[in-house]
Each structure stands twice: as structure tokens, then as C-alpha cells.
């Protein structure tokens, strides 16, 4: 067996199951899960129809590079969403369909990392655990950049030593962040591109929450926006990851894309032809329909706005919680230990959240997720309100 498997830590939800497995929740309360970030809003009906209308295409072997029509739809969406000049993003060379960002982030790391004793993969801390596992199985070491409140829950990139940048092969970004919801500012993205040029590393921007934001007049920037602002038409060292899971409430479709540096994607495509991960033709056709429509995406944001407004009105008077810049999470400060808070809340109120320390790694004795929990506002509005009311009641019962 691959000895690197021994370095993988249990997934946060395994830890959560272990924590809560012997706890008996209040029998008079129905369970409410704010733990898993699985969208619960309805999937677009027109996407389902497109899928159903093309089931005869299941008899066709799909190509790894995907249908030209899908890559064109993705290219058009990127141009409109991130302000790219027409022609910069070439559908034939700068775009590659993938089976969701989780699969792509892992596979991309295997393709990009050049195995050496010095290789580092940098990621935010707390973080999406795929970044860590992908780095270890690619033969690199993860290096964690703490995301603290005093820095707006973004890493302090200025504090990273030059020798760490020099060893870096991939820098993972997540904006809006999981679990913090923090955005990476455009100025920071430009600074990171300059660092990538100086030290020759790849920026892998996980932007799967990019379409969950609050101000319709000011969509958050992404790494492609920074490339456009810099006149960087070759997207050198820059790759973005997008998905229909959160944007369109289609987590089961397993559809997304990677876009950016053509030379990197050429090598990644070669890797994927051996990896055997082509997207089925019916899925590709359904994806085209989803990427070509924005009405359902705006309606989706409206639903999340309503939940944030209602839940924050209940929780802000009783605990330290702020509206994030984006995503569907609340990154909540707990009165005391986050693991005890999670266990006791489940026992007394039958509400499930995730301890922040399960989503982070301790570095030099400090875990930046400790003392916080992640709450995913994915349940229907009424359930989110009831969960917030139960949390408020739980807090009132704590010793002062």
C-alpha cells in the first residue's frame, strides 16, 4: 500500500460521528443538521429535463476534453462573470470540464506537484481537507497559513518567509472561504500573482462558492478578474476551479470546470486521459443549460439572503457571529471549547454543527479553528430559524 495513506487524518465528519455517536439527543426535538455543506434548495427543473432528454447519449463514450459546446458555454460565462476581454479565454486550450471541484482539486495536485523532499503545498488554515490529502498523496508537505479574525479571516501573506514561497509548488486559495466565508481582495490576488512569478509556483483558486454573495451590483472578484486587471492574457501560473454544486444546487451532477494557464491544462489533460474521469454526455448537456442561465442563480442567492437575515437577527444578540462576505456558512465564536459546545448543543437541542478545530490544524500549538464552529445554512428557512432559536435557548442555559 502507498505509505502516504498513513499520513491522512480522519475526515472532519468521521471525527464528528465519533464525537456524537454515544450522545443521546433530546427525544422531543427533531434533528436539524447545520453540519454538512450540501445545498438543499431545489435543483433547476430545466437541467433535470435536459438530462432526461439525452439519456440515449449514455451509449456514447465521452471525451476527456469535453464537448466543444460545453467549453464554449463555460468560456462565455467566465467572460461575463469576471470581465475578461473576448478571445482571452480560449475554449479549446484554457478550459477543461471536470467531475466537480473535489475530484479536480485532488487530481490537479497529483499532476502539478514535482515530488521532492522540499516540495510544499500552501493552503489556508482552516481549510477544505482535500488540499491536505492531495498534497500528502502527491509527495508534498502541506504548509498551513492561519486565517485569523484580525486579518479578516484571510492569511497574512506578508508574514510568509521567502524560503517558504521558494519551496511552494501550489498555493491553494478558497474565496469565498470554507468555512470562514472571507473573500480574497483583488489587490491581494494581484500580489499573489507577482509572488507566483517571482518564486515559480501555481495558484490554484477554489472558487466553488463564488456565486453565493450578497450585493448583486458587486460580484466578488476571482483570480481571473485579477488576470484581467493585470493584462495577463496568458493566465500564466493561474488556474481556477468552479462547480455547479453550490451555484446551481446540483451537487449530485458532479459537474464543474478548471480554467486558466493553457500549458498547465495541457499537462493536466494528459494526466486525466489516464485517470479515466471523462464527464458523461448527458451531464455535459445538462451543464451547458445550467451555465447559460443566471435567473436560477439569482433566485438561489435570494434564498440565502433571507436565511442570513433571519438567523443573524436571532443569534447576534446572544453570541459573536458576523455576516460573511460570501458562501452559506457562519463561522461562529463559541463561549468556551468548540468541541464541548458541539457535543452539548447536539445533546440538548438536537442541532448538529462542526467544531472549528476539526477543520483546522494546530501549528506550533495553536489551532486557528479552536473556539469556533461552522454552521451551514443549507436547510429550509423554517429549519434554519428553528435551529437558531434552539441555539439561542441553549446559550441562555449556559452558566454565566
UniProtKB/TrEMBL annotation:
Superkingdom to which the source organism belongs: Bacteria
Pfam families referenced in this protein's UniProt entry, alphabetically: Aminotran_1_2
Gene3D superfamilies: Aspartate Aminotransferase, domain 1 (3.90.1150.10), Type I PLP-dependent aspartate aminotransferase-like (Major domain) (3.40.640.10)
Cofactor: pyridoxal 5'-phosphate
Aminotransferase class I/classII large domain residues: 31-391
GO biological process: lysine biosynthetic process via diaminopimelate
Keywords: Aminotransferase, Transferase
GO MF annotation list: pyridoxal phosphate binding; succinyldiaminopimelate transaminase activity
NCBIfam families: DapC_gpp (TIGR03538)
Official protein name in the record: Succinyldiaminopimelate aminotransferase apoenzyme
Organism: Pseudomonas pohangensis
Amino acid at each position: 500500500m502507498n505509505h502516504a495513506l498513513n499520513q491522512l487524518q480522519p475526515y472532519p465528519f468521521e471525527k464528528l460521528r465519533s464525537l456524537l455517536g454515544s450522545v443521546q439527543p433530546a427525544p422531543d426535538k427533531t434533528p436539524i443538521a447545520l453540519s454538512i455543506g450540501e445545498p438543499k434548495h431545489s435543483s433547476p427543473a430545466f437541467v433535470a429535463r435536459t438530462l432526461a432528454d439525452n439519456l440515449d447519449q449514455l451509449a456514447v463514450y465521452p471525451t476527456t476534453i469535453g464537448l466543444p459546446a460545453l467549453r464554449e458555454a463555460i468560456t462565455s460565462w467566465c467572460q461575463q462573470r469576471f470581465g475578461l476581454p473576448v478571445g482571452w479565454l480560449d475554449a479549446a486550450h484554457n478550459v477543461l470540464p471536470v467531475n466537480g471541484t473535489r475530484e479536480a482539486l485532488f487530481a490537479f495536485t497529483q499532476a502539478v506537484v514535482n515530488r521532492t523532499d522540499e516540495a510544499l503545498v500552501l493552503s489556508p488554515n482552516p481549510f477544505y481537507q482535500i488540499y491536505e490529502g492531495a498534497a500528502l498523496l502527491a509527495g508534498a508537505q502541506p504548509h498551513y497559513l492561519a486565517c485569523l479574525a484580525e486579518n479578516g479571516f484571510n492569511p497574512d501573506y506578508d508574514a510568509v518567509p521567502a524560503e517558504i514561497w521558494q519551496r511552494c509548488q501550489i498555493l491553494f486559495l478558497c474565496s469565498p472561504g470554507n468555512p470562514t466565508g472571507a473573500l480574497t481582495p483583488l489587490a491581494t490576488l494581484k500580489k499573489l500573482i507577482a509572488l507566483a512569478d517571482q518564486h515559480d509556483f501555481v495558484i490554484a483558486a477554489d472558487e466553488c462558492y463564488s456565486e453565493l454573495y450578497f450585493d448583486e451590483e458587486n460580484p466578488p472578484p476571482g483570480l481571473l478578474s485579477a488576470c484581467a486587471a493585470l493584462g495577463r492574457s496568458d493566465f500564466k501560473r493561474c488556474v481556477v476551479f468552479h462547480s455547479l454544486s453550490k451555484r446551481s444546487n446540483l451537487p449530485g451532477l458532479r459537474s464543474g470546470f478548471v480554467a486558466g494557464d493553457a500549458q498547465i491544462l495541457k499537462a493536466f489533460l494528459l494526466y486525466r486521459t489516464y485517470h479515466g474521469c471523462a464527464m458523461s454526455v448527458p451531464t455535459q448537456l445538462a451543464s451547458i443549460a445550467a451555465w447559460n442561465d443566471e435567473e436560477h442563480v439569482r433566485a438561489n442567492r435570494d434564498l440565502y439572503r433571507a436565511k442570513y437575515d433571519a438567523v443573524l437577527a436571532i443569534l447576534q444578540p446572544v453570541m459573536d457571529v458576523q455576516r460573511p462576505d460570501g458562501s452559506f456558512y457562519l463561522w461562529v465564536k463559541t463561549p468556551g471549547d468548540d468541541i464541548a459546545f458541539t457535543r452539548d448543543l447536539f445533546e440538548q437541542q438536537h442541532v448538529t454543527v462542526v467544531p472549528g478545530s476539526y477543520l483546522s490544524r494546530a501549528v506550533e500549538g495553536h489551532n486557528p479553528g479552536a473556539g469556533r464552529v461552522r454552521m451551514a445554512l443549507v436547510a429550509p428557512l423554517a429549519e434554519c430559524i428553528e435551529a437558531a432559536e434552539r441555539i439561542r435557548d441553549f446559550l441562555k442555559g449556559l452558566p454565566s
